[in-house]
Design a protein that fits this description.
alpha/beta; 10 helices; 4 strands
Length: about 210
């Protein structure tokens, strides 16, 4: 099993300039190292990255994704995505990493009071350290709309998971993704949020990947 740090996170380097293609190349190299094919799990924007990798022909035999943060694709959603991109770019451009991390968390449903508390903890510098990679996630997501034509071409068996306590738009997006894929199943984990407990998620993934 390989659990790798994406570019700019953990022990991974961060060669510039960033491009989504480089992350797909990273995943391809990892799959080759693992034996030439792989069962792949991607969380949040990592799920969108995994979809793109599979669409480009990487040897993914089964795919599981957890709440890929797509939106409804309507005008309101498009404007919200543009606002997020502008604000995030401005904060990172000004070097305000902590504010960028807090802005992203608020956008994706975290209560402001919870974020304020987190900023006083010893773990917060870790969030600040990886804040520039939020722009990478944003590049992967594009305008945030579900890439229906891309997904409709994927025949790899796929599990799409959402949480019962996550914002409704996340659940709706995950279900819409599952309905678009030709060979997918959808599952909700009751009582969980976007910050899912590993001990809850792991058995679901093991069951799916061992079929």
């Amino acid at each position: 099993m390989f659990h790798y740090d994406r570019r700019g996170r953990g022990d991974s380097s961060d060669t510039q300039p960033y491009a989504v293609e480089r992350e797909i190349e990273d995943l391809e190299a990892l799959i080759n190292e693992a034996g030439g094919s792989a069962l792949v799990f991607g969380m949040s924007s990592g799920g969108a990255l995994a979809f793109e990798a599979a669409a480009r022909g990487l040897a993914i035999t089964r795919l599981a994704v957890y709440e890929p943060p797509f939106n409804a694709g309507d005008e309101q959603a498009r404007q919200a995505a543009e606002h997020y991109t502008r604000e995030l770019s401005a904060l990172l451009g000004e070097g305000r990493r902590g504010d960028a991390a807090a802005f992203a968390m608020t956008t994706w449903g975290a209560p402001a009071e919870a974020i304020a508390g987190m900023r006083q903890t010893l773990i917060w510098p870790l969030f600040e350290a990886v804040a520039p990679t939020l722009a990478y996630d944003n590049a992967i997501m594009g305008d945030g709309s579900i890439p229906t034509e891309r997904l409709a071409s994927l025949t790899v068996p796929t599990l799409v998971v959402a949480d019962g306590a996550s914002p409704a738009f996340m659940q709706n997006a995950a279900q819409a993704v599952a309905q678009t894929l030709p060979n997918a199943q959808f599952r909700i984990l009751e009582g969980q949020t976007h910050d899912v407990a590993p001990q809850v998620l792991a058995p679901v993934l093991v069951e799916f990947f061992n079929r």
